């Protein structure tokens, strides 16, 4: 699956997209890691989605077939988990339910690289989201993934994201200090987010949940651009104290979740101001 025939950033209206998504109350089935599962569920809910975390191999195909989105996050990968994710992904493909994959820690171990490769190769994936090192590793290039963290700088991340999008036939979101959204032809830089988001475990996982909610209602490229921009905007709003004071990363996370819930269609957010096409 590739991006849309999106040829003009300026026809991207967050208010319109978010209202469409909220009106649908999309059911998102997430097979995700136990480290951040509750945050993923709440982030899904706060964007206007309905989370369900069904991952039993006996029922997951049935649950996904009734859903509007399927999130596969391999953070605490296991043999059973891989089997369940592949089963869920195939069921989603058959039911034309958009699949979002977060290949957490790909490149850190041969096992994670093999699982991530199977997920993005065997399945038709609408959007892949990972940090700069994970996307670089997924593209088959040298990357330094320490555990699940991105280490080092990736100056060519825009080109790498396009290469990854081309290889996987998916829209790719490479997150970090600067977020990149790419399809097989074009990369966009999304100027949104705050360093405090990097002090919270789970902000990458919750970005995946955000993308799954938006992808339920609009094409993958617009969903990735609007979702990534709105998500980063929420991080900025929380850091600015718009959703209450905080004393450190734990209380910031609470403010961040409140900011996601408060970023509704009325929000003064013009995502097109945050998105720039990357030209070589
Ligand atoms: N230094 C930063 N400045 C701005 N935004 C950031 C920064 N670090 C992380 N983010 C934001 O936090 C979210 C998670 O990104 P990242 O930390 O790269 O994911 P992961 O947790 O999977 O490694 C993204 O929306 C990203 O834009
Ligand atoms: C620490 C950790 N270990 C396995 S999954 C996970 C959470 C990763 O969350 P994020 O990718 O959002 O930082
Ligand atoms: Mg992550």
UniProtKB/TrEMBL annotation:
InterPro entries found in the cross-reference section: Hyethyz_kinase, Ribokinase-like
Protein name, UniProt field: Hydroxyethylthiazole kinase
Pathway(s) per entry: Cofactor biosynthesis; thiamine diphosphate biosynthesis; 4-methyl-5-(2-phosphoethyl)-thiazole from 5-(2-hydroxyethyl)-4-methylthiazole: step 1/1
Catalytic reaction equation(s): 5-(2-hydroxyethyl)-4-methylthiazole + ATP = 4-methyl-5-(2-phosphooxyethyl)-thiazole + ADP + H(+)
Keywords linked to the UniProt accession: ATP-binding, Kinase, Magnesium, Metal-binding, Nucleotide-binding, Thiamine biosynthesis, Transferase
Task performed by this protein: Catalyzes the phosphorylation of the hydroxyl group of 4-methyl-5-beta-hydroxyethylthiazole (THZ).
Annotated substrate binding sites: 53, 202
Family per similarity comment: Belongs to the Thz kinase family.
Entry cofactors: Mg(2+)
